[in-house]
Each structure stands twice: as C-alpha cells, then as structure tokens.
C-alpha cells in the first residue's frame, strides 16, 4: 500500500506506505529495531486504556487493543483507504473515529496512555496537539518522530525528494533528538529517550 493521506483541503498530511508489511530487507531491518523499541516502551507504560492519535491503517492500535482490557480508540483523517484497513483490523474494545488531533472530544484523563507514532511531524500545531494528548491522558505519553536532520539526509542519499532537500511529503515539523526531548519535557518527565535508527522515541510520565 503506497500513496499519501490528504485532508479535506487537499493538503498532504501523511503517507500510507506500509512499512510494517514491507518485504524490502533494509526496511524490514529498520522496522525490527523500531518495533522492538516501541514494544519495550509500551510494556513499561502498561496501558489500561489508550488513545492512538493518527492511527493510520490501525496496525499498531489493533495489536495494542489485544493487550489491553480497557477502552482503546484510534483516530485519523477521513480517508477511504484508511477506512478499508480499519474494517480488517478490529478488537472488541477497539473503536476508530474520524477526527483531527487539534481539539480532542474526550474528558480530562479519560485514557491512561496517549500515543502518536510518526504523527507529530505532520500536524500543523504539534505543541497544541501534545497539550491535548496530555490533557486526555492520566499516565503516559508515548511518541515517536523521524530524527532530523538524519532522516532527510538518508532520503537524499537514496535519491528521494531531492527538490525538497530530502523532506518526506507531509513533514511540516522537524526535530533533533534534543529538541524533541525539550518539547515533551513541557508536559512531564521524559523517562525514556530512545533512538531506534533513524527515529526518536520518547516515553513521558505525566504529572
């Protein structure tokens, strides 16, 4: 599955390349490190309920729902390709909703954990989105983004997106590991800062 996700105004907001199901050996090796690190941080957070902001095709949120007894909600944009994938990935405690992340219609502390995996680089106001995530979560934030400028350098090395200096379509925010840690530190204690190549992944304990 490949392509891009766009909002109602036609703006590219993400991509739908199936990195989790790729048969490319390089991608598979990188994703193995990514998923191993993510699973370790997920286990440490031990969610009892979860909101996944920008759930994409639902690959991760379906896995997580099967490990959680409480309510699990995945949200993303209104894209027919995503809806088709959601129909394939279900669990009794999992609900998908179409919405943007800017103003979440959930109560304060409604979820134990809020996640945004490869999402914040796409949103127009990541600081506000994180504030909303921290508001609706009572325990933890678990987030990841591409590590810059490494990400763009790797794209250029493989001849991708050269006219945009290696910037992946839809990436409107860019963080080094240090800058991303500083951003998340506004919301709680960054108890884990991991760098599965070429990403930054953080686990944040909320106050």
What would you note in describing this structure?
Helix 2 (59-65) links the parallel strand 3 and strand 4. This protein is of the alpha/beta class and 207 residues long. Helix content is 31%, strand content 25%. The strands form two sheets. The protein has a seven-stranded mixed sheet, sandwiched between helices. The N and C termini lie far apart (39 Å).
Indicate the structural class: alpha/beta
From the 3D coordinates, which CATH architecture would you assign? 3-Layer(aba) Sandwich
The side-by-side strand order for the widest beta sheet comes to: 5-4-3-6-7-9-8
CATH level 1 name:
Alpha Beta
Biggest β-sheet strands, sense, barrel: 7 strands, mixed
Q: Give the CA-CA distance, first to last residue.
A: 39 Å
Number of strands: 9
Tell me the fraction of residues in β-strands, as a range.
15-25%
Uncertain spans, ≥5 residues at pLDDT below 50? none
The CATH superfamily name is: Vaccinia Virus protein VP39
What integer is the average pLDDT?
90
Helical content band: 25-40%
- Total helical elements: 6
- Spell out the helices and strands N to C: EEHEHEHEEHEHHEE
Number of separate structural domains:
1
């Amino acid at each position: 599955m490949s392509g891009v996700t766009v909002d109602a105004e036609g703006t590219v907001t993400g991509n739908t390349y199936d990195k989790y199901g790729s048969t490319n050996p390089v991608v598979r090796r990188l994703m193995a490190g990514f998923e191993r690190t993510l699973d370790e941080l997920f286990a440490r957070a031990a969610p009892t309920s979860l909101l996944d902001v920008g759930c994409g095709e639902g690959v991760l949120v379906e896995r997580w729902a099967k490990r959680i007894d409480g309510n699990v909600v995945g949200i993303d944009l209104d894209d027919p390709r995503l809806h088709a994938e959601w129909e394939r990935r279900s669990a009794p405690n999992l609900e998908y909703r179409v919405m943007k992340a800017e103003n979440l219609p959930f109560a304060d502390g409604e979820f134990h954990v809020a996640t945004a995996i490869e999402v914040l680089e796409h949103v127009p106001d990541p600081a506000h989105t994180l504030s909303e995530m921290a508001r609706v979560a009572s325990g933890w934030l678990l987030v990841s983004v591409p590590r810059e400028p490494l990400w763009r350098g790797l794209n250029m090395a493989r001849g991708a997106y050269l006219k945009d200096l290696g910037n992946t379509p839809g990436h409107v925010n860019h963080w080094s590991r240090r800058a991303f840690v500083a951003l998340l530190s506004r919301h709680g204690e960054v108890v884990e800062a991991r760098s599965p190549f070429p990403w930054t992944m953080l686990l944040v304990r909320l106050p």
